[in-house]
Prior knowledge:
- The structure holds two protein chains of two kinds.
- By secondary structure, chain A is an alpha+beta fold.
- Chain A has helices at about 1-5, 30-40, 75, and strands at about 10, 20-25, 45-55, 60-65, 65-70, 80-85.
- Chain B is mostly helical.
- In chain B, the strands form two sheets. A six-stranded mixed beta sheet of chain B has the order 2-3-1-4-5-7, sandwiched between helices.
- Mean pLDDT of chain B is about 70; it is low at about 190-305 and about 325-410.
Amino acid sequence: MRDTESFASPINLYEACDEAELRILLITGGWEVRRSFNQLGIQPGDRVRVLRRAPFGGPLMIDNQGTRVAVGKQMAEKIRVEVLP
Amino acid sequence: VKVALVGQPNSGKSTLFNAVAGYRSLTSNFAGTTVEYTQGEARIDGHVLDVIDLPGLYSLTPTTAVEEVSRDYLLGGQWDVIVNVVDTSQLARSLELTLELLDLESPMVVCLNMMDEAARKGMTVATGELEAALGVPVVEAIGGRGRGIRDLFQKAQEVAASNERAHPFIYAPEAEAIIEELAGNLPRAEPASAGKQESGGSADDRSKLIAESGGAATTSESAWRGARGEGGVEPPHSKANGAVSALRAISCPAGHCPGACCSEAAPVSNLKSQSSNLKSQSSNFKSQISNLKSQDSSGHSPLKVFPPARFQALQLLQSDPHRNAAEDSPKSEVRGPKRNDALPVEPGNPGPVPGDLKSQICDLKFQISAPEPGSGYSGIQNSESISCLADSGPRTPDARLASVGPRTSDSGPSFVDWARMEIAVRTGQPADAAISAARHAACLTLFERVAQVARAHTDWREYLDRAAMHPIWGYAVLAGVFLGFFRLIFDVGKLGEARILNLFDALTALLARHMNAQGAAYAATKGAVLGTAGAVAIVLPYLLPFLVGLAILEDIGYLSRVGYLMDAAMHRLGLHGTATLPILVGYGCSVPAVMATRILSSRRDRFIAAFLAVLVPCSARMTVIFALVGFYLGANYALGIYALNIIVVGVAGHVLARLWPEVSPGMLMEVPAYRVPAPRVVALKTWWRLREFVLVAFPLLVAGSVVLSLVDYYGWQHGINAVLSPLTALLGLPRSTGLTLIFGVLRKELSLLMLMQALGTTHVLGVMSAAQILIFTLFVAFYLPCMATLASMLRELGWRLTLGASAALLLVAVVVSLAARGVALIL
């Protein structure tokens, strides 16, 4: 059960459903994007959760180990995640 | 003894600073409150400490101008001890900066601040264990309540006195080998403490040396050839084929983990499910610590170079490989060496590689590879391994070739490039990513070891957020807060204004009776009384409630949430949500608002945000709006001006975004937890801001009034008004208002006071029509920023943009006032 679900095709963070447990697979984009995420302690392998999202293509609010971070749409689209069961 | 307070944004550095040095540094609950360093004196046990409150920085490789301020200060080396302030409730993340600071090999104390916040989250921290792991003293504190502060600074002083240096955080031996190689090839720059401006100088030297080490350049060249199998001499330091082990080496803290370590070490947030791995890692930690301890003997020897070569090497590895030196602001040269060591481009070179090659390769690998059982990924079944796919993974020769492929033609290879490539090849990710992944993994492991987190329960904060951040109600709340805030200020202010004005009216009447109404002395005295009246009766009643309200809003932590809500709208202005913060600060005062734009990473974003922040009516203009329009025409007109202002801000932002298009990188902003504002802090903060008014603005207002009275007495104002008459005529204002507009550039409230004086009464409505009052206020609200703001714009933006912005503001003011005049004529 776990194996089949965890191999679901990776999506980007913006496509993830609210409240789903996610694992970051990859941060695409250049140095600056990677750096900005790393600075906030967001790295491939981390577990995150989308708490809520603002309307009109607004940002997501994600929870990463108790830290809340607002992630804009463009930035969220640069993160590949998998949905954890 | 100089104590530098260093920590991530919103970790409470300024609160600690204020607790020992008196309230000198503004505090609030959002990341990026402090954008410049503040120095103060603290007396602990009869010793005087110089304490420096630095702006928050997430890491020593900055992405924003604020972080550069701190980084440059730290690397300047003009301090004796670092106090690393850590928000304990964000311990895992905060440790990343702590580990970086250890690399500075300097006296250091870690302060676990906000222990109460951590306790609320159900967190307990084994301080002793953390202390042992980091090798530097750790002190618990609650800055907001003044707990542990004395201990902290005592400890800092002890550490400074004994000059006990921190030991660098050690990566795996193989990774260290590369780092050491690079460090050894850096120029032995003169100690940075010799000159404060070290970053410029030594960075130059360094790049020069990197360039001069021709051997390095050619070896790296041949290293590439070797890697690509084109023959050539294998460079001595290229341990190229031990790649697999090196890969593990760099992405896990100590290198000798079992097979799957690399993919396990980097993504460790799922630690609990993988306790077996955890154990092996924590044993690694122990070995690391013993490693550290074995170096103890060298600990007390003075550093030959500051910053240490190892630190410099790490910085270079983490710097942006594609950053163009020309783009760099002079300040940030240390980010990466200038690549003036251009080598001839190889024939058959595919030419400049667009974009971020390495991340493209990552992408590529992401697609082509699936973990192969038994190829060093034993036990890893899920796609974690993808994130750190490396040499051992299946890899087409092409991909390998690409990853070591030639770099862009404008920048020949250098030693740093070689090291970067070496790491990239070994780990399958860019050097900076590999290093920060290793650090991240180490932090999480350390965190798991020293901290226990109970399951967090939903409290009022969560419910508050559900309402305040709701897709629909969130905006209703925002509008409500905004309207309610200004309405309340107006109601309170109006009460005060009416009463205090009566008092001063009586005083002027008294004056007229007792003095010779013809003399210059009378004119001057009357001016002084009117100036005082204006400051005390008109400005203060609005300013005081505004400052209290602002302090409360800032401390609750709502402003970052406004950024979240407004992000989508800000994209229409070519900005993103983070830019909301400086603009909101602009409602208080334009000077800190312009400075707050430093939290944005692009120069263009900084300019647009600064322009919009200046356009927003600051508290001085607020008093003009409320005391004139609000007082005479009603609160709705005053709030209408605010609404109109928001529209103008929107249009101006839209136009600017068109004129200076650039793809905005998007928002990434920490949202702080809600906090109940402490009354004491709110009071101190209000006083701190009010002090500026009392010390700077008040004398200016009184002096300005006296000057104007004398100008009026001697009849000089006619000339000035005549010069300005085209403008006043255009706007349909009384000619005598011309002079007041000039005074407004000194200080916005002056316009208001001058107006009353120029008209010879505090009862403006009798002299000016309602439309004129409205037009005058609109013009004052939009036209040129005051001197202090202009100065800070000059500093932050340069004279060209400042001049452009000023001209644009003047234009906006004329257009808006004319439009208002048109509307008034029609009605």
